[in-house]
Structures
1.
Amino acid sequence: MIRHTILGMTALAFLSTAAWAAGQSQFEMAPSVPAPNATALHLPPSPPPGGTVTIFDNINRKQPQNEYNCCAFYGVMGPDNLLSSHMLFDAMGFTPTTNLKVTEIDVAVSYNSGVNEFSLALYNDKGGVPGTALKAWTFTNLPPQNSCCQLTIATAPSGVPVVAGQHYWVVVRTDHASLNTAVDWNMNVLNTTTHYPFAQYCSNDVQGTPCTTPNDVWTAGTVAPAPAFAVFGTP
């Protein structure tokens, strides 16, 4: 099947000047506490993604054993995580340039601690940050921290409509079944100096130190390197 890359990411177009200025210094990477017995393990590469149109893809598919950075990541933690940290969700933004239906989302997410499970969701945009979930998936049995390269692949055979020029977010989060989960969203290894839209939701209502961003709200800015992810669709 031939895939045509006809969409890109207007990476910064929807972020306010203030958010740009905030940059990535406010955002948190994963805690330094690793999962037990974590090693730099290489796993078999995932099959090529489905779909006929590449909306966005920063996964290094030409090198199956280096699809993403095994050992650098942004943290995602439920409110009861075992790291005694505050809750933290991460999101990467993209803007399609034509109307499509999203049929697949790939992310590089690895296990840190707690329940080996996380939730992946496609959100619309509200005021430059994630708004409402359009579709969500739950995944278990993630690869261990500091491993590469096994992608988590979410599919939507019927497709989730996205509109040209509208902003959307791929969100990695926990849910009611993974309150004590901590996972890592691995960084990409392509275009590592290019800044892309990124948002974090932080809350220390249950536990943890004060957030580096405002509590209980999404905060948007940009990051480089960005988390590794891809979005595919059909017309």
Note: Residues 138 and 161 are 20 Å apart (CA to CA).
2.
Amino acid sequence: MTVTTKKDGGLRKPTTGGIIIGSDYDTERTRKMKADADMAEIALARAKGELCVTADVIKAWENVLHACKAKLLSMPSKVSPVLANETEISQVKHLLEEAIRETLAELSNYQPEVDASKTGLGASREEAKEVKPRFTSKPNGRPKKIDKILS
């Protein structure tokens, strides 16, 4: 789209406040504004507790798997004295199944505690409740007319 100016009759590109639409500067400014908006959305979702840090999830799963491994490795020492006296295969099978179900029930109630401050990436629940303003700079430019009227 081109526009004819009145002074010289030449053609010029349309602008928005001195910035040529479609120029590199305009494109980069739009990209930066979108990135800033995306970062603000991520910060808000994190503050609301709707977003979690990958390191926290990994740490929680490590805790779950460690607890599972410990429980499974402790089963033989718990079950072997009982099974040593059994002669019937069906009874041995029943006791093993019972021990496995007991271990699985204990693991199903396992609640891993991941302290977000230890990973250094996640915000604690107290910090998540406090939404801090992202920018605290003073406004620049001339004051608005309403500011002059109120003061």
Note: The beta strands are 3-4, 11-12, 15-16, 19-20.
3.
Amino acid sequence: MAENIDFIAELRDDSGTSSSRRLRRSGMVPAVIYGAGKESIKLNISHNQLQHKLSTPSFLTSILNIKVQDKEEPVFIKDIQIHPSKKQIIHIDLQRVVADQAIRVTVPIYFTGEDLSDGVQLEGGTVTPLLNEIEVSCLPKDLPEYLEVSVGELKLDELLYLSDIALPEGVEILQLTQEEPNNEPIVAIRVLRIQEEEPEEVVEEGEEGEEGAEGEQDEASTEATTDSEDDTDKSGSEDHKDDS
């Protein structure tokens, strides 16, 4: 089982949006603890305390001992909300743990063996994760911090699926145990292709100059022809007057 991590919480009496905002401004995080057939309890937890614990990779997939007043009980993090830009913890849900009751937890998938894969080393492929985490069911004592998957035997364009994950004893993948199993692909070796942009046609200055000169010559020729026709018309008119 993952290493226990302890932290302290305080009881919270008030609720609502305005109350939660005041708590956050004072450096506290609103939380709730529920489950195991007991009533839900509203809590306050120090933001700095949580932020420090989050630096431990196993924190989100560990059985934690929480102390409220003088009482301790085991819990795990069911949900945590973090502000997308401020990186501030907004709220946290904690679920009580009962030793003989299975829990459902989402754990990360770590891919190893890239340096052993022919698809990467010999065929120019790249390890392309298709799933980064998966929900599992197990007893609290069997909860893994993560699931490790080796891609060392994969060749180019080959995939691994959920059913290829070597699970610790007592751990099940929920997608594979449901009524209609969903054996999703989790990783592939692929060649990453970058689409090249088509180059724009560039007209050279010399070609524009030639076209411009030809255009000027055509205009001059047209003007000369028009002037010649005008002179001929005038001459014919004068001859007609003389004859008259």
Note: Residues 208-214, 222-226, 232-244 have pLDDT under 50 and may be disordered.
4.
Amino acid sequence: MATKPKRAEQAAGKAGDWREETLARMRALILEADPEMIEERKWRKASNAMAGVPVWSHDGIVCTGEKYAKVVKLTFARGASLPDPSRLFNSSLEGGTRRAIDIHEGEKVDAGAFKALVKAAVARNGPPAKKR
């Protein structure tokens, strides 16, 4: 039986263009940064060929990945509260909660800095509240 990440990986690899390759590379870094990460596909609609948007979570949403014509966008749900010493965030900078990384064709993202950002996002989410 296939696991969720494998099914999501297969769905993510259909087109084979630079956006698919970029998203697959970033997905691998996310899972390396936190092997306990949960990956789901949400928000299935015609504009994303009913494939949905990959959503990575650990005690809450960490980030989403979307493909657009000119960029692959990784949006961190609570990115405004995360340290970003490498200045990876380059989009959605005006918001009070989210931050995003737009990756254009041919651009490379510093793998170590990105994994540190993912780990910081997981830590920010923290463990779920204990029931009383």
Note: The helical segments are 4-12, 18-33, 111-125.
